[in-house]
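Thread: "does anyone have the structure for this chain?"

Original post by V.I.:
We have the sequence but no experimental structure in hand. Need at least a predicted one for the grant figures.
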Amino acid sequence: MAQRKNAKSSGNSSSSGSGSGSTSAGSSGGSSSPGARRETKHGGHKNGRKGGLSGTSFFTWFMVIALLGVWTSVAVVWFDLVDYEEVLGKLGIYDADGDGDFDVDDAKVLLGLKERSTSEPAVPPEEAEPHAEPEELVPVEADPQNIEDEAKEQIQSLLHEMVHAEHETEDSYHVEETDSSEPVVEDERLHHDTDDVTYQVYEEQEVTAPPEDNPVEDSQVIVEEVSIFPVEEQQEVPPETNRKADDPEQKAKVKKKKPKLLNKFDKTIKAELDAAEKLRKRGKIEEAVNAFKELVRKYPQSPRARYGKAQCEDDLAEKRRSNEVLRGAIKTYQEVASLPDVPADLLKLSLKRRSDRQQFLGHMRGSLLTLQRLVQLFPNDTSLKNDLGVGYLLIGDNDNAKKVYEEVLSVTPNDGFAKVHYGFILKAQNKIAESIPYLKEGIESGDPGTDDGRFYFHLGDAMQRVGNKEAYKWYELGHKRGHFASVWQRSLYNVNGLKAQPWWTPKETGYTELVKSLERNWKLIRDEGLAVMDKAKGLFLPEDENLREKGDWSQFTLWQQGRRNENACKGAPKTCTLLEKFPETTGCRRGQIKYSIMHPGTHVWPHTGPTNCRLRMHLGLVIPKEGCKIRCANETKTWEEGKVLIFDDSFEHEVWQDASSFRLIFIVDVWHPELTPQQRRSLPAI
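Reply from O.Q.:
Generated one for you, tokens below.
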């Protein structure tokens, strides 16, 4: 292969040499004309014709020039004076037929003599690194590159809210579900470093019992959960993309030099690498896997061949929806990094993709170790430190994440990504006023990863809490940029097309039998709740999610995420038996069933729930005559004992308790009535 490449280079250089020789020959001919005339005068042709170079002289000059061209070509190749990869990459922009190079067919397409191919990418194999900087998470079988983009959206965004007590808020990092067409399975083992984390995986599983434990690649494993459904849309922008992506100024700002992925040895087998890569680009994944496996067998020390194998395994995992294959890809990415003489760009891409895929499977601690190694290898790359900060947030280590972002901001004080995340952490620490400038300036920077709904959410929320009237300006901006359904409805995990209104009647929900049963048995429900309160065994737990401006507010939960709390139901057995008849609430995996007690002097900040997939019923049990009220959007109502209020808590709502005695209500969440049975089975828990 080296001979073939050198021959090609020599041919090109010889051609250049020939051109130079032609010019030189012409020049020599011009300068030798007086000599030729002198030869004619002193013994030239008697008939006066001009004499020329003899055949021997011409041959000698030709050989000198040819040898000069050959040795020039050898020198260019031997001393690596020309970056052929870069040259070919530049020519690749004219690759119009998608075959990975610029040739006669491309010229015909550009001249309008031939139609452009639409089935293949118009970039050479080495130009577009498919898994460089993933910005998404959803497996899509048809197009590996689209898979990549969606995978980036999922894993790198990573901003997900905790499931909180009475009213959820988004104060923690999670991995949220992604859209697909496969069923969802519940898994008791999901609760680890943070509460309520759901992960996307490939394998199809039955929606029945949790799967058995099985060993996986990392020792710090976090078990995966299937969380797949096509209609749910997460209103978020991936960290590596941005609303300004189509802005020429933004493009210039984030434009990066094409990574160099070939070491000296890999350049000698570039033709073989390109042939295998072309198979992968054309979607012939199985053939590409075999091609790269053969290259790895022939050239075990080739980093680019092994990286290509890892990419093919990655693509194959997407296509087959196989965790096992994906674990193999993760292992191969690690093998790339362990080889000698790995180009720095290739090393970085391999480890970043490994970290991304580990996060995809829920291996957050394994991903963190990979990110830590990246930062050690590339200590001056602040983008890697930003990723490391996210890695810490994913395992709930806000303190170390905060240190990372403080370090980044000390070096690059205008780093928008670091600012929004630092502001996010400050707000989670209840440093509300301090968080505002970081969130605000970070969003305004327009840096990749800053145009995310959660940052608008927390900035507006922080401003509301300090009395800053600009809060709704930011909510409006978040709505205009597609993060919120409206200024009032600011949930982030939504199914499109569902009816949206703050307040509902029982008839509108279709759950009239449930409402009648609650209202008919309200005293039974009340008495069991009061009995639990009297036992004073700590079954009512304080709301600790920082939703209160002041006061005392506690809850006693019977169902959470569609799971019955057996111990809690021992305290309210008749209530639990009553509810078992209504799967629209006991099976609502995006809600809760619970008692809620609020004492005088309590105010709950304006806030929204996480999803539009549920409605919330409030049954009044013990309601003071005056001083208790709830606002949802721009309408305020009061509770009545034995009566049900129904509202959509994805809309902003706020609660006041200014009475002289406690208020006790019973909260019952139900699926949004327009969700199909399949959606109710498939949507991941929140």
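V.I.: this helps a lot. Residues 243 and 481 are 8 Å apart (CA to CA).
O.Q.: and The chain has 27 helices and 15 strands.
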